Structures are given as C-alpha cells and as structure tokens.
Amino acid sequence: MVEWITSDGLTDYEAAVTFMEERAVAIAAGRSVECIWLVEHPPLYTAGTSARPADLVDPGRFPVHMSRRGGQYTYHGPGQRVAYVMLDVGRRGRDVRCFVRDLERWVIATLDSFNITGEVRPGRVGVWVERPEKPPLPDGSPREDKIAAIGIRLRKWVSFHGISINVEPDLDHFSGIVPCGIADHGVTSLVDLGRPVTMADLDVALRRNFDAVFGPAAGAAADT
Length: 224
Hints:
Blueprint: E1 2-6, H1 13-28, E2 34-39, E3 44-47, E4 64-66, E5 73-76, E6 80-86, H2 96-112, E7 119-121, E8 124-130, E9 144-155, E10 158-166, E11 186-187, H3 199-214, E12 221-223
Parallel strand pairs: 1-2, 1-12, 3-4, 9-11
Antiparallel strand pairs: 2-6, 3-5, 6-10, 7-8, 8-9, 9-10
C-alpha cells in the first residue's frame, strides 16, 4: 500500500524534512505504509551533498537550507510540484540506480501526458526538454532546458526527498543559483512550454503514471 497525501498552501521546508525522516524510520520498522507527499514550498534554495559554494549566486535572495539529499543546488517555490517519495527501496529490488531510473521514467511518463518529451542526459541530473526554437550553444549543440529535478536520500533502504516538476513557478527565481551545477542550459516549466496545466492536472497524471511505473498504489489518499 502507498498512502498519497496532498497538502494545500505552502509547506515549511524544515517541517517537511522532519516529517519525511520520521516516516522513513516508521516504514523501515514496519509501523507505517509507504507514502507519496505532494507539496509546494515558499521560495527557497536547497543545497545537496554535492553543492558547490560558487553555485549560490545570490545567497541573500531566499532562505538556503542545507539538505542531505544527493545533488547540488535546487530551487523550490510556488508553482512547482514537489513529490516526496518515502518508498521501501529494499523491498522494491534493493537497487538504487534502478530506483532513480524509475523516478526518471515516472517524470517522463507524466510529462508525456501533456505531450512534452522529457529526456535524461548522461552526467546531468533531472529531466530535460529540447528547445530547438532557441539559438544553439556556442559549440553548435542544441539548447535544452530543465523541467524536473531529482534528489533522494536513503535511510535503512527507505527513500525520502524525491522529485520536483515545474508547473508555473517564477523562472527568474532560479537565477539565484546555478541549478544542479549546470550553467550551459536553462530552466523551463509546463506553462512556459505552452501547456496550460494546473497543479491538479499534474497530480492526476503523477498518480496515474506512478501506478504504471511502480505498480498499483492501492492506498489511502489524504488532503491536508
């Protein structure tokens, strides 16, 4: 069983981390079922375990939270759907690389629901879309924009943190960091790509495609 929780409004980041850590311990101990938690945060930056100080371009712009998830700097804020995944990776094959690939497949399948082709790139974390309408890079390679980020942590083989997909955030907010350490490409969103998608639309697609990638999520749904 997987419990789905959708929180209205903006969720405090540190409170979210506390919830995830406690839920991961409970799942590992068999006291709780797996959980997908859908939230939005107020504007903030998070620094993963590989974050480089030079990539925090504007440190005074928004609060900066040190995170023990994998990855570098990311932005969270209104208009971005964050899906925290508290799943038993031990029970789901005990293969971290495969689990991350499944998260990528989940995001890509969800984007495909809105006729957006998301792709992954070697050496670049997250999910990307090609932007052929933009001028190519100086080396002639095509421009690509990031639409989704992925960063997880495991505790006793239970995952937490997760994915974020840009629905309609203020894209200028990403300019305070080098997102995920990638300076050559930009950031986009579903609305920026011309898809008038609501958060509720995305949530439906996330749940439907989760079932397709990870198996039926036959659990309770809750709103907070």
